[in-house]
Amino acid sequence: MAKVKTRVLVVDDTESVLVSIATILDDGRYDVMMAGDGEEAWKILNCQQVDLVVSDYNMPKLNGIGLLLNVRNHPRTSDIPFILMSGGGIQASQEELEEMRAKYGATFLAKPFSVMGLVALLEDAGAS
Known about the structure:
Layout: E1 6-11, H1 15-24, E2 30-35, H2 38-47, E3 52-56, H3 64-73, E4 82-86, H4 94-104, E5 106-110, H5 115-124
Parallel strand pairs: 1-2, 1-3, 3-4, 4-5
């Protein structure tokens, strides 16, 4: 019996980042969906099953925090693990990041990141 792939939604307004992450996750364990902004991602989340979200912080239309809040406030999506990425746009202390993690269950990933760092976060989130 074939193992079911983990469905990962990657959200970033930079196409090269989307393609890079999709390439990293193209190892047979993941089914990768891509969205160019938070609004597009929210539409996908409302009509498809998603196991994990990896989202950029700074995006047009609906940023990563807005998407995270939508996900957490909707009963169908509230338990989806969420990784929030930023290339330095999050001006927050370690204490503030810990509070966000505790309050909203988000994990933070700084760009640029290593392949091993991303894969480790996915595995920690239960997406293996």
